[in-house]
Design brief:
The structure holds 3 protein chains of 3 kinds. Chain A is mainly α. Chain A has 2 domains: about 60-190, no CATH class; about 210-430, MetI-like fold (Orthogonal Bundle), CATH 1.10.3720.10. Helices cover about 65% and strands about 5% of the residues of chain A. Chain A has helices at about 10-55, 70-75, 85, 90-100, 110-115, 125-135, 150-155, 175-185, 195-200, 210-240, 245-260, 265-280, 285-310, 315-320, 325-355, 360-365, 385-395, 395-430, and strands at about 60-70, 140-145, 190. Chain A has a 3-stranded antiparallel beta sheet. By secondary structure, chain B is mostly helical. Chain B folds into 2 domains: about 1-155, no CATH class; about 205-455, MetI-like (MetI-like fold, Orthogonal Bundle), CATH 1.10.3720. Chain B has a two-stranded antiparallel ribbon. In chain B, helix 2 (about 40-75) packs parallel to helix 6 (about 155-195), helix 12 runs antiparallel to helix 13 and helix 13 packs antiparallel against helix 16. The two termini of chain B are about 55 Å apart. Chain C is of the alpha/beta class. In chain C, the strands form 2 sheets. A 6-stranded mixed beta sheet of chain C has the order 6-7-8-3-9-10, sandwiched between helices. In chain C, about 45% of the residues are buried. The chains are: A mainly alpha, B mainly alpha, C alpha/beta. Chains in contact: A-B, A-C, B-C. At the A-C interface, helix 1 of A face helix 5 of C.
Chain lengths: ~425, ~450, ~260
Amino acid sequence: MAENSSLVRSTPAAMAARLKRRYAAETRFRLAGITAIALALGFLATLIFTIFSNGLTAFVQTSVKVEVAFDPEVLGIGNDRSPDALAGANYGQVIKESLYKQFPTVEGRSERRELVGLVSSGADITLRKMLAANPALIGTTQSVWLIAGDDIDMAMKGHISRTPGADGNRLTDRQLGWIGDLERQGAIRKGFNTTLFTTGDSREPELAGLWGAVVGSFFSLSITLIVCFPLGVATAVYLEEFAPKNKWTDIIEVNINNLAAVPSVVFGLLGLAIFLNFFGMPRSAPLVGGLVLALISLPTIIIAGRAALKAVPPSIREAALGLGASKQQMVTDHVLPLAMPGILTGTILGMAHALGETAPLLMIGMVAFIVDIPASPMDPAAVLPVQVYLWADSPERAFVERTSAAIMVLLFFLGMMNLAAILLRKKFERRW
Amino acid sequence: MQLLILMVVLLALTTFGFRLGRGRAIAASGNNPRLLHSLPRYHGYYVALWSGLPALFLIAAWLMLEPSLLHSAVMSALPADLQGLSEERLALVYNEVRNVARYGHVPSTDAVGQAAAGYIGVRDTVFLSVAALALALAVAGLAFARKRIEVELRARNRVESVVKVFLVLASLAAIFTTIGIVLSLLFESLRFFQAVSIFEFLFGTQWSPQMAIRSDQVGSSGAFGAIPLFTGTLLISGIAMLVAVPLGLLSAIYMSEYAAPKFRSVVKPLLEILAGIPTVVYGFFAALTVAPFFREIGASMGLSVASESALAAGMVMGIMIIPFVSSLSDDVITAVPNSLREGSYGLGATKSETIKQVVLPAALPGIVGGVLLAVSRAIGETMIVVMAAGLAANLTANPLEAVTTVTTQIVTLLVGDQEFDSPKTLAAFALGLVLFTVTLALNVVALSIVNKYREKYD
Amino acid sequence: MTAQTAAASLADRRLAKVSSRDVNVFYGEKHALKHVDLDIRANEVTALIGPSGCGKSTYLRCINRMNDLIENCQVTGSLSLDGDDVYDKKVDVVQLRARVGMVFQKPNPFPKSIYDNVAYGPRIHGMARDQAELDEVVMSSLERAGLLAEVKDRLEEPGTGLSGGQQQRLCIARAIAVSPEVILMDEPCSALDPIATAKVEELIDELRENFTIVIVTHSMQQAARVSQRTAFFHLGELVEVGDTEQIFTNPQHPLTQGYITGRFG
């Protein structure tokens, strides 16, 4: 037994108590770790659940069946059947008249206005398209399913109370009654919300769509890819394979690492000052957005590219050089192909990140209210995350579900891109 | 549009040049390519480069110079009365001329209409000359290069030097970006500091960036003291770190020290998802769910919680930052050599004692570096605060109130139809400069700490 | 084993501090240690020798259950300390490791001050009631490790700043500070230069007065210098055990003889 002259050992009881305390501390510590993970994942689950539960109903749109009488007198075209006349005809009035006829008991201005509110103010576009496709419909009466007004839509989905007499109802009791009538007649239904995926933005929620933003995102990311992939790969190749180890190369490396950590807002300021003001590029255009995003993604691609190049073993390089290949040939024919999966994975992840960027694009003006679908990267456009931001700002109840749906679409694209990156990495993962 | 056509034509020319060069090389060797110094395709590249590059440079130069060229052409052609206007008004006029010329807006005055016509005229003439010259250069280059093709030509070396130059230039893109950022921020900030003193900006406590349109306008105070913005940023970032550091660090400890490999392989990617969700989604979530939640809880406890409280924004930002802290800490903790752990276990320590007293202190520099990087991320975060935090400057330390941050103000100052030069918009650049400097400093410090730590254990 | 050696080993068992019977260790499918019967006597230095991969470190790590830290490691048989089964379910590993200390091949001082390195063990086990007692434990441990004179003016400096030999003596001081009964040493000098090695060997000789020491070593000369008993392992089996002098001058088993004379290893 070791000598411990001045040291008095604690009594066995005290030792046992102390040991118990120590093990209790151990259990508490473990528990803290699990709790932290549970909390973090719990937040994630809450976020996803909130978005999805709010957004699912947006994929459905309420329509109202109206007996539309294409009366040429009401349309105000008389005998004129030219395309211009048809385009400029008064479809709004047609809808109103048809509704009055469908609900003959309705009288008085305010009542009639409420009645017209059942249908979306943009429903006339549907009729215009019908007549443009088939002018022979003039003079006939057709059953047409028209998009319902956004409050009606909300009521049908249960987001707005349908009990008459409740305080602060957005719909009047009469309107609620009519909805009941329409239901009994089978004249109101919920169908897939194609508007959401085929139209551009609109002030009216029931007419608002994501397609414009999707096209805008597509154009922006294409420009980003075209600019930053060659530049990024070239820089990575240079720094990794050709650059001498001197002060200048160090400066470039430090620079790239710093750029990777600069807040994206600052890139927006750069875009504003240089692209918009100095070069006079078109505001709100995916071209400028794409360039700004390219600058943001550049460090990511360079860093991923360098890692991929570093992973290729020196033995392969030496073998190529030993056969008499020039350094550039060695890189192009041997190193790059082997590093390409890693480079592509990094690029896809960089693009995924760029897809979600919002702040810098706000600064270069992609926050305007754009209704038309952009036809080229020079036309003003919005991008998906900016569209989310714009809709999140709108007060109408119906925009809450649409914002959530837009987020679901955005997350879907991001999920696909990340999945592609993971599959790519798994397929080409090599163990040297 | 015409530029696109020009580029397509040039592309066709260079492709043709490539084919030509390659064929010529094979022919020059008498159909025996082994005699050539370089592979035939390098001869092809040689011709293509000679044909395409001069034209490309010309077009690039034109793209660079066109804006200023047009500007001076239009300005010098303006009638005398317009020329005497102040700089700001002239910029307005030029803007209008540009819009009329490009987008077909209706000119407000005849002078503007004429200037726009002049703009179009100059622009089209210059473009046509540039296009013609570019095509001429391309053809000339092609012919010149083709003539030089022979068996002895060291085409590969020439082509490779050009490629090398391209690689170097590409690498400089990153430097140019940084220079661009610094210059644009500095330039505009300096103009701002001519209107508002730097002391007032950095030390003033009143932020209400309204500038008068007319000097006699009421309420034209225009205070640009940024202290409330700094405190607001610190408050929200502080709350975010209070959430992210404990949760992130504890998660990392559990996953690297306690968790079974299967658990880790499932949970780690899940936590990474938190980092992949766009911040605009977090902002929406904060405004839609979290802020009202806190407001109601507060109301039920008798506290008055603002609907855009710093607490809500800070908490959601903290959730977003968790994966940054946890993934960096995980790497750092795993890097602590196992021999230290064995030494501790050998002495009879429990796992938690080993972690708390040996592993964490050893990993501390790396963890601190990671936390600093996370702080830098929090300070630079924009969308969450734009959507969930307030817009009015408020100098307070109370997390239940609404505050505004540097990034929010940068966005609100610039989103909207502002005159570009007013001090209001320039203030955004000054704020951007402060933001850039602070995040840069944080990153440099963090990286140096992490690197010093890595040296210790490698 | 002959009847004579069987009787001798019966007598040994009464002196045994650490006693193993039919100890087997499996790493997954691999049978790393086979049927080891070995007695370690108190207050002696026992050397475990043998070629690489023969299982000596594995056996060592069984004694203080450091093998528990390795996944898929299975230990069967009985291993007892002072007659108490070490692998019994009721045994608290934490307590065990306070009684059986370990010094590793590569010195692994904590990135703390020299004082805190040595004080770590007593602190977690609550062995000192106040600061004065703790100081005394640290000082006496450093002295017994032969390090006090060299570091007494710089106890606050980090342990990692010492030379290799000093670091290893620091690790020994650290192990002594918890007053163990047995000290296990896994090739403690293989990372040290000859002068430092000599100092550590001298230390081991002084320590055996108060501790039981089991040392794994690659160097037969070191085993001969330092130990009283030697056990020779080969491919996971204990081939021969006996007094050091006898093993090195008159080995009984042909394998032992082959290893000693350098025919393999």
